[in-house]
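Below is how a single chain appears once it has passed through the pipeline. First comes the sequence as given, then the structure the pipeline wrote out for it. We keep one example in the README because the format questions we get most often are answered faster by looking than by reading.
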Amino acid sequence: MSKRKQHSPEFKAKMALETQKREQTAAELASRFGVHPTMIHTCKRALLEDASGVFERGGKKAP
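Resulting structure:
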């Protein structure tokens, strides 16, 4: 039985940012990054939901 791949937050952010360029479809990006298209959509959704946290004052990172 194989283990699931563990992707770094940097890798996930890179994928999510690529979706915002709208130059390729989710299927094309998934093929390029070697992941399932669902992961592309999940990372994109997480980016859009948590993007406001980047601009919060106080320099605190959310857990």
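Helices lie at 9-21, 26-33, 37-50.

See the next section for the split statistics.
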